[in-house]
What we know:
With 307 residues, this protein is mainly α. The chain has 2 domains: 3-50; 55-304, MetI-like (MetI-like fold, Orthogonal Bundle). The protein is built from 11 helices and no strands. It is globular, with a radius of gyration of 25 Å. It starts with a helix and ends with a helix. InterPro entries: MetI-like, MetI-like_sf, Phosphate_PstA.
Amino acid sequence: MTSANIHKIRNIINRNKRAEFIFSIIGLLAMLIGIIALMVLVVDLISDGLPRLDWQFFTSFPSRKPQQAGIFSAWVGSILVMLVTAAVAIPVGVASGIYLEEYAKKNWLSDLIEINVTNLAGVPSIIYGLLALGLFVYGLKLGQSIVTAGLTLALLVLPVVIVATREALRAVPSSIREAAYACGASKWQMIWDHVLRYSTGTILTGIIVALARAIGETAPLVTIGALTFIAFLPDPPIQAQFPYISFAWLLAPFTVLPIQMFDWVSRPQEEFQVNAAAAGVVLIGLTLVMNAVAIYFRYRLRKNIKW
């Protein structure tokens, strides 16, 4: 190889290195812009709402007087709706992902289902609200209730859980499946005892993302008729009399934190804007708590896996 060719190759390598360096700088700046903008918004929200956060704000119902208004019914409604959402979306989504990845035959029908599930993950949330309005409110006569809201949000995040489950199962090496079969395990034993143990952490990550999206949704709940002003709580799920467990709360009217914030920010008084900021801080806190619980369980599950 001549010295001219060596010099030309070195120039190409140096040019590629410069291009890679420039691209990394651009990517870093783009990431910093997003993070800084988010931090500025969060800090501004906390600075506006933090002085309003006290015990009275958490234990008071909404009021026409901003100094007396609270989020008692809103945060209780958010927790109850998320319980229904998680109870429906997690088992149905994980089971659907397992079936599509491990049991369904690879043909045009499974490809069509996979394409539709992936596309449903990007459908605007208002479409799910309209679907729930016709199916749950008018079709099944569930009314404008907690169970309707939970089922609506479960439909909304179900594609996310299914896709996350399938991707987690695909990431498990085929050698683990082959080793389980070699030891005489059935297909379900292989999935339950081996594949799911190694993929549970990734599945939980998808569930975290799905529930974090659901807790902040407003459009589908407005569509099905969530109340903006509610001054009572649903019946408690646990009672002192037999049978000690009540499901009447599932059919109770509801409101949630995003709806309460929407109602307050639409009012002209400055005090209601402060209340909305405080409710936003609580909503962020609920999301962080949910994520922390899921991350803890994910850590414990991964710690118990022996590679």
